[in-house]
Amino acid sequence: MNVDMHINIAGVEWKNPVTVASGTFGSGAEFSEFTDLNKLGAVTTKGVANIPWAGNPTPRVAETYGGMMNAVGLQNPGIDLFCKRDIPFLKQYDTKIIVNVCGKSEEDYCQVVERLSGEPVDMLEINISCPNVKEGGIAFGQDPKAAESITKAVKRYAKQPVIMKLSPNVTCIPDMAKAVEAGGADAVSLINTLTGMKIDIHKRAFVLANKTGGVSGPAIHPIAVRMVYEAARAVKVPVIGMGGISCAPDAIEMLLAGAKAVSVGTANFHNPAVTMEIIDGIQEYMEKYGFKTVEDIKLGTGYF
Question: Which residues contact 133 (CB under 8 A, 6 or more apart)?
């Protein structure tokens, strides 16, 4: 059976519904030896700011049951080097480019978005949900009014469709999704990491220098599925689902919950080829159950 894996998000056509989560794939170069970037629906870059960020002090990564914690703090080289080095690298490949944008203030975000307005990238993902940056970031992602305001601000400068990346560290995820939709978001992505903490009982010290960090990996997947389901029912814009996806069944679960596309994160660290396996697995699933398009997967559930 012939299946069509193409999807369209805010007018941008992907060859399939699989991308990578920001911060887990660099800007593609690190994984190009292990992953066929031409096969990905899109590459989502590591977060980029208006100036270089050093990130948080070390140690800033730790293993947990069923996943990991990180408090990297969005270390990045800044927008100028990113445009000079990373965009030309990605343009060599037949994939869509989604640039993740981070900032500590509304002005920071807008400067990067404006700088990218003339660059050959396809979409922007605005990170208002990092739990490891003390200024900005998570503050925008936990208050619906602030989230709507920052969305409106970046939309004034954006030439590409804007995806707002939502935090799970909130009481009501539908309220956050509706807030950024009201602000003009073209799509939403969720979930970012959950805030956690780990203590070394023998050293009697925090494992991460930042004390807290973002928890990711398979352990958070059921939470992510629930939040994607709730967000997809609350808004009309497309939803990109992420959170603990480590295999094709996990990705398909997200599509059934209402996501139009999926983003694979932590699993890339222990299996650099996981995205290829997930793309193949989705295609096999569609062939097995007679779904001609990716959209048919969700429509076949009767949930929406």
Answer: 73, 74, 102, 104
Q: What's the rounded Cα separation, in Å, for the pair 170 and 157?
A: 27
Distance CA 112, CA 83 (A): 11
Integer Cα distance of 182 and 57 in angstroms: 37
Nearby residues of 120 by Cβ (< 8 Å), 6 or more positions away: 87, 91, 97
- Whether the link from the prior residue into 191 is cis, omega within 30° of 0, is yes
Q: 20 forms bridges with which residues in the sheet?
A: 264
Residues 175, 144 contacting (CB under 8 angstroms): yes
Q: Which residues are catalytically annotated?
A: 130
Kindly report, residue by residue over 112-139, the tens digit of the pLDDT: 999 999 999 999 999 997 654 554 455 6
Q: Where are the alpha helices (DSSP H) in the chain?
A: 79-81, 87-90, 106-116, 138-141, 144-157, 173-182, 221-234, 248-257, 267-270, 274-289, 294-299
> Dihedral of CA 104/173/248/296: which sign?
negative
**pLDDT score at 98:** 98
End-to-end CA distance of the chain: 26
Best CA proximity match to 98, nearest among 31, 27, 154, 149: 27
pLDDT of 136 reads 47
